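User: I'm curious what two different proteins look like when written out as structure tokens. Can you demonstrate?

Assistant: Sure. I'll show them one after the other, since each token string lines up with its own sequence. Here's the first protein:
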Amino acid sequence: MLHTEETVVNELNSVNDNPIVDVKSQNIFHGGNFHGDYVSFEMDKLKIAFTKLTMLSERQLNYLLNSKLNEKFPPFVNLGVLGLNFGMQGIQFTATSTTAENQTLSFPMYVHSISNNNDNQDIVSMGYNSAQFAKKVISNAYEVLSIQAMTLLQAIDYLDCQDKMATKTISVYKALREIFPKFVDDAPLYKELARIKTFLENNNP
């Protein structure tokens, strides 16, 4: 990510026109400096990295929700009545479909090139498209991480292990529980999910 930031900052602060007219020396340079190749490549790398993070989060979430795997929590970390309530089962579908969306979006735009402008633009970077997809992938990643965080809150309450948590961890737990109170009876969770996502986006370490 640091390399991506460095590359994008350099490109934003570089000469980005063609031709470059140097009035002082009365020279004109044709260098193709408009081309967004570097940005496109970095955005593709960024979205691939965030997609991998999303996949890891989704698999960890699945482990928490599958009682046959973890052998520790009730199915779907259901804190209500089994058979009457579904716990975190419904919101897992959101995490799974969002992860699948990221996997699709992570295909590189960098390798796409469609000639246009009477074939004058014969090699096109697709940098803007790649940046837009990267933005969507990052937003999706925060959504899956938010669902995982909500599930972890439920797991902590099931184990009743708050007194064993580190000071920093318990402070995060309390902050998230103010947004998403203990979930027992089935209800839509999209509003709480949106608030947790906003919290994570605005509180990066």
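Here's a second, unrelated protein for contrast:
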Amino acid sequence: MIEYIRLDTLDLVLAGLLLLINGGLSLWLRLGLERHLAVAALRMVVQLLAVALVLRVLFATVSPWLTAGVALAMILFAGREIAARQARGFTGWWSYGLGVSCMAMAAVAVTLFALTTQIQADPWYHPQFAIPLLGMVLGNTMTGIALGLDSLTSGVGRERAAIEAQLALGATRFQALRPLMRDALRSALMPTINAMAAAGLVHLPGMMTGQILAGMEPVEASKYQILIMFLIAGGTGLGAVAAVFGGALRLTDERHRLRPDRLVKGR
């Protein structure tokens, strides 16, 4: 039986020395990334340790309300990240609401599907299973939606004259926006497609690597990784399609007119 290796603080400090090398390279090459690197590393350490303490409490209580509260917080923070990654976001509530609603719908649906069918946790809302699954699906769905919406809104700003010309000639809003919507969906789904295509041959995905290091039999670890990749692809696809179609509706009106006034000015 393979046993997992416990890490102590010194092990993490030694690995952190690699960041000092990166910071030194940034200073030497005048990249200006050393401060961002330090802040990102510090945030990661604090956030992961805080999450670990929260999960310890959740695992001990197994409350559906606490699990739902943590899931809601994760969704709200992810929605903020989607809004922050837009070069030209929507005005008003739509800047935040469109991304977070589509992401929540897709990620929660896919996570519930996995918990009640493949995982069959008892109870189904057990945080040991619900929170990690939701986190993995949510993170990838967030990235897909952010890329899709950014591609769509940037394309509308770039191709405004061509779109308005098509609408003036009688095209419907979806006909005029179809090329941009396709490009947006390709941008949203391509990272997931690349990750699936490269898994195993180019790299071992993080979850599988962690389970193997923790002592799980490699074949069983690969099964879990395949399940997760399918769930991620499903959530990303559902969320991206909903967000891009919602964005197209927001960028036009019922009279099939382009509404660039619903976008914030370019940064």
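A detail about the second structure: Residues 64-262 form one domain.
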